[in-house]
Amino acid sequence: MNKKGIAIVIVLVFATALLGLAGVYIRNSREATPINSKILERVQMDFIGQGITQLALLKFKQLPSEFYYAYNFSVRDKRIAVVDPWEKYLLGPLKGDITEPFALSYSTKCRILGQTKYKVDSIEFEVIIEGNGMKRSIKKTINSTRVKN
Amino acid sequence: MRAYSSKRKHGITLTEIMLATILMAVAILPVVGVFSQGHKLTQKDMRRIEAIHLAESSMNKLLKLPYNQVPNGTLTSNLAAASGTVPLGNVSGEGNATFSISLTVSNYPVTFAYHPVDLNDPAYDIDKSETWKFLDETTDGAVFDGSGVHRPIMVKQYEISVSWTEPNNVTPPPIRVSSLKANLEE
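Predict the joint structure of the above. Result:
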């Protein structure tokens, strides 16, 4: 059996294997950077969502009667009006688009997790924020006591 | 005495060994370069991830502070409030990296619109939603833009920025996160 030149063949095989490994390594490194960016975007979206939740809580705190009127009329009793007061209630700073740090759109949902016969409600605010192919949901639940004026 | 064999012994020649070594070196050098570059990129990514974690951690601590304990303006050193401290300024990270965390707090005017119910309507009954007549949209009592005593600022915007310098003295774009804090205590 002629073994002349076998060393070169072996080296070429090893070299090809090493280049293959390097190729895989480069590809993995390239994939890691976008994941890194996604982490930042997710964090940014979560904090913006928490901020919008604060606005929803402030609106509720400042306008509790208006909140209950609109919610009970449109959601609980499912009444129809020319202008839906509940839909309008959730507009303004509770729904919109922002461009910084990147293009995002957000909206706010809300539901009362209580029973009408009790005077204490659990109110769940949910801010849904979307952008760059991601969707995040931030929820905040508070307890509220109803007092009839 | 052993007879001399004229049959030639086949083996690896010096030329083959040298050629193989050269080929191996040519193949290995770029691979080592790639791994070295990859290591540098990984370190760079780790610094960026650490900056993101620092920004996230500082913002979480900041959001837990009561509204009135966070002053407006730009802060570049620790914010020591009555109910906690938010680490700001220079923070040492892993791998000899130093991160600089700054906080900017500004007013965030908001206006809430709503449709009030006509409480003066004769048919109005608080327990019967069919009697509720919603008036036109208004913002009465729900403007918080700081333009008057009855229109105070009720929301602040927090922006945290984390910057650092790479070992090659390049400063990457800072990590920025922002959020809002409403005055829910009053």
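The first helix of chain B runs from residue 14 to 64.
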